[in-house]
Structures are given as structure tokens and as C-alpha cells.
């Protein structure tokens, strides 16, 4: 059988094994248990084939995740890193522009360009002050004014968190503050949203590793201790290792 018939036949076989309670070895406990969908993985040469498997699994009510990108290539991880860079430094205009244009705040390209020309990308409060004082200098819609006010509040809260909390708690609280997982999930299906949450959890895990390092310096290019700056350096090093996306929790099939 070929094409969709082969996908259907493969799904039928997997469903039969799961229904029969075929035994598998649990890697965490070392004991055997009945097979589940999230014990399965599909390997194929092309993404087109994997998409056919994904469609077939979805038709049966089974979640699947297409492992087409590395962890640091995903939208949610990229946006989270830009947000942390903006929190770390108001002078990082590239990060600020990415954040303000994203689904976190949704400013228009025109507004971001005007803020860039006024050298106010990293300072939402000063941008609002200039818009109130001279509306012709920075023309903002009512939505954009509210978005910049929210961005200012978010930056204030997150910077306070990184000053007062352990780095892993500050990372988690900062992601929750801007509702990054929920905002990214608006453009994804259920399986994609679950994967996005797992990927953001992987960023928290990196922060836990940095926090466990205590006061040890990461190197000559970073500050000593479990700081936001060292956390960003740790993410840079991890990116060079090119890890796969974190496996999502729940009953799902990995497509590779």
C-alpha cells in the first residue's frame, strides 16, 4: 500500500497494539506497562509524509507534534528570548522592536519606526510622554497607547522580579506576566499549543540550571552568579548545541 493507504494501515496497526495493551518498557520506572500513543514516533524522509500522518492522527483524536525545527528556532522561544533581552537592557533596540511588533503588544510597523527614529523603542513610558506632549512626533492609536502602557508595567514588574527573586522564579513569572504561551497559542492548534508550552518550560529548566550554579561565574563574558545576564548567556550556549524541541506532556505522537 502507498500514500494515504499506507498511513491508514500504519495507524490501524498502532491502534490495534494500543487496544491490545501491548507491553512496553517505561524508561522512568524500568517496569513494563501497556503501550500508549505517546510511546509512538513516526520517522519519514519528507514533511509531506509526516503531515499525512498528522492529519490521520488528528482524525482519530490523537495529538501529534511535527519536529520540524530545533527548540531555539521556534516562535515562542525566539520571542521569549527577545523579551528577556528587552527586560535586561532598554538599549537593545532590535529586541524591543521584535517584542513591540509581536503578538505580545501588536504595534504597527509605522509606530515602531517612529519610536525608533525618536530613540524610544526601549522606553514605553517616555514614548507615551512624547506622544502626549507632541502627538505629531509619535502618532499612536488608542490601542497602541494602551499596549505601550501595558508594556511599561510588564517591564517594571519583570525587572523587579529579576532583582528580588531567584532567576528561575523570575523567568517563570515573567513568561506568565506577558501571557506568552497563551498569546502564541492563538495561532496554533491544540497540539502546537501544547508543544509551545513544553518549549517555554524548557527555558525555565535552563534557568533552574543557572540558579543551581549559585555564585559561580559562567565565564569571562558574563557577570558572576545566577543573573538575567548569565541566563541569556546560557541560552546562547544552548542554542549552539541545537537541541530538539522539548517533548510535550500528555498522550501524543512524535513526528520526526
List the keywords.
single chain; 256 residues; 11 helices
Which regions have little confidence, pLDDT < 50, spanning 5+ residues? 215-224
Largest sheet: 3 strands, parallel
Strand order of the largest sheet: 3-5-4
> Counting H and I runs of at least 4 residues, what is the number of helices?
11
Relative strand content:
5-15%
Distance between the termini: 21 Å
Number of strands: 5
Task: Tell me the radius of gyration.
Answer: 22 Å
The geometry reads as elongated
Helicity, as a percent range:
55-70%
Average of the residue pLDDT scores = 85
The H/E string reads HEEEHEHHHHHHHHHE
Give an overview of the whole structure.
The structure is a single chain. With 256 residues, the protein is mainly alpha-helical. The chain has helices spanning 3-19, 47-59, 75-88, 93-101, 109-117, 124-133, 142-164, 167-177, 180-185, 190-212, 228-241; strands at residues 23-25, 32-34, 41-42, 63-66, 252-255. The strands form two sheets. A three-stranded parallel β-sheet has the order 3-5-4. Strand 1 and strand 2 (32-34) form a beta hairpin. The protein starts with a helix and ends with a strand.
